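[job 4471] stage=fold_predict status=RUNNING
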Amino acid sequence: MPGENLSRDEARERAALLSVDGYEVSLDLRSAVGDHAGEGPRTFRSVTTIRFRCNEPGAASFADLIAPGVTSVSLNGRDLDPGAVFDGTRVLLEDLAAENELIVDARCAYSRTGEGMHRFVDPEDGEVYLYTQYEPADARRVFATFEQPDLKAPFRFEVRAPEGWTVWSNGVGEQADGVWRFAETKPISTYITCVVAGPYHYVTDSYTRVLPDGGTLEIPLGALCRKGLAPYFDTDDIFLITKQGLDFFHEHVDYPYPFGKYDQAFVPEYNLGAMENPGLVTFREECIFRGKVTQASYESRANVILHEMAHMWFGDLVTMEWWDDLWLKESFADFMGAFALVGATRFENGWITFANRRKAWAYRADQLPSTHPITADIRDLQDAKLNFDGITYAKGASVLKQLVAYVGQDAFLEGARRYFKRHAYGNTRLGDLLAVLEETSGRDMDTWARSWLQTAGVNALTPQVTLDGEGRVAELTVLQEAVEAYPELRPHRVAIGLYRLQDGALVRYARAEADVAGPRTVVKELAGASAPELVLVNDDDLTYCKTRFDTTSLETLGERLGAMTDPLARALCWSALWNMTRDALLPAPDFIDLVMRFAGRESDIGVLQMLHMWANSALVNYAPPAWRPTGGKLLAHIALRDLRGARAGSEQQLAWARFLASVASTPEDLALLRGLLDGTEEIEGLDVDQELRWAFLEPLAAHGLADEKVLAAELARDDTASGKRHQVRCLAARPSAAVKAQAWAQVVESDALSNALVEATIGGFAQPSQRELTAPYTEKYFAAIERVWAERSIQIGMDVVRGLFPTHPAPEDAHATLAATDAWLTSHENAAPALRRLVLEARDDLARSLRAQEAVDF
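[job 4471] inference complete, writing structure tokens
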């Protein structure tokens, strides 16, 4: 990986020197099928022609290319010696002219890691499927490029593919004489070009809209997936969300969709959730549901579709200059995706999911030692890869929601419209956006940006209530705190809600919006209100902060959380309680007790599923080791209780069934799962489909009750790519030292597994219930990670370093594991900064767990 890196300074120097007029890329993918008997990786031919200008004739620069070999290089008609100018990652370009033509004929490698040109063989029917994935800088694995976002250019692709295949790219394609040729794109960055090829199942539709000038905008729509997933491909819903989203964005951004067609490809073994390639968005195929799922899954998919659609404007039409301003696309897409979800689709409670799930990701990321301002300091591509994180996405989106409250929605949207028209097909920095927002709002955006975008850390807001002699509010104060390392006290536009019990329901009876600034703010508007039983700071979730409670409010939640009728307010309280658990302010057993008593009353299915995740995490990470067996039995008890009590066939019933599988540990619980699998047990309305069968099999495998023979039989029943991933995870979950040794060797000592199977193997290996079995791998982990980081792709390196860190040490080894982590960090100060960041984050998670465990007095 070090040879593949590109620094910000190098990118700036090259952008100052060069401008690109266009690319012509010819790929021959016929080698994707058939036997591969040669040594080394399977390769394809890639011929790239780049026409570009240099404003300092005679200067030198370089093109990017990661390939096993280069056949020829021609610069301005001169044949260059490939061995002299190509070092495996770069093509040296010397004595440049004012106008240049570079032609590179290379042998590029198909990928098994989800980067570059990924090749997948479907175990179900033996068919081969290809797709590309480039962000932040893997187009250079497929063709020669100037691999940085600010060297935009039009692209023309042509592709030779095996007979019977269809090929898609960003532009409209036509086939003639065995060659697919695609229309030239608008000027775009290299990382959002795309090729998808194979015998995909393809469905079409169209979108039509009358424009304000009287013209008609027609957008061809397409959706594709592997043939094996075609029976489950609910394209009607996908196209419905797509059309609703296109209507919403056209109404709000006043800039017609600029990239012609709109295809959406659902592809196998995808590393990301999705990618915003203009005209050809790619998604992980898990967005196609093989079994019954809850509405939360459909909402999540709709949100992803709309997030990627937002990128057509925020990121594709106008692109950040360098990855420092990644937030200019990801924060906006995250916010606008949720904004469109609520404003245009059936998922009207999308802001609840945002508050409960997305912001939980942000709060965690913002308390890690690697936290950073939303506008980050991105030194190189490895930094960039790791900054696709909860701060860039969810915190950034949360801050934009606060910005809308600060400047007003109309001013915000008008600023966006001017931004697109002013910078279309160009690149921008932070100041370009702030300038239009100042124009439209009249607000001082520099001060706001310094506080919110250029500082790290999360503030905590706590209410303090003083009553007068008549039991009314004499003074309500909001206290703001920050941690010592990140002391910024930000200006918050917040709503404060007062709640009390009325007719058995906990309801809001007073509300005020206020600007909170500094350590102490008096909210005068609530003086004189009757005494509250609960004060909710940041009601309606206007700002980004950790919400705390006064003593009375905390007592009220402990008694009446289930009586709170407003679903968003309830979700905000759950989120605040979870943050308190992680901060060792609320003992994990107390949080689990709240879940036991009130989760069954939760009406929002997404919140319920999040509570299941948090309760499980509280048990395995934050509960004292001596209490875990008791806590596990309690969670399994409520899971079974509420599973049996849920309405037959409801999504609540399905959610509780999956939760039971995640916490089952006693012989009785495991016997029930086995009975549900073999048909000797039945719960009315519960359809144990194939996906649920695998969910039940994993705990059985982890407790030694489903052996290799049982898992092989299940794979025969579900002999698909999805089934293979499930089987691999279950195999690695078995409680055997030999099994763990084999799984470790497959992931750490070999690169034979694809990215999806690496992920599955790691997931099975790292079972919290098998702490003693995985304890011997702590020393091996620290001995291996620097080598793995150097030898494997950055995606696989991230998966290994994160996934195999000893997060769940045996109780007697916990502090020794922390010491071993510190020793590695001390002795590897010169290790790759991105690698050190991953280890520091894992160390912080472990230390946080220990603090929470030790804060409970048992």
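[job 4471] summary: Residues 113 and 465 are 55 Å apart (CA to CA).
[job 4471] exit 0
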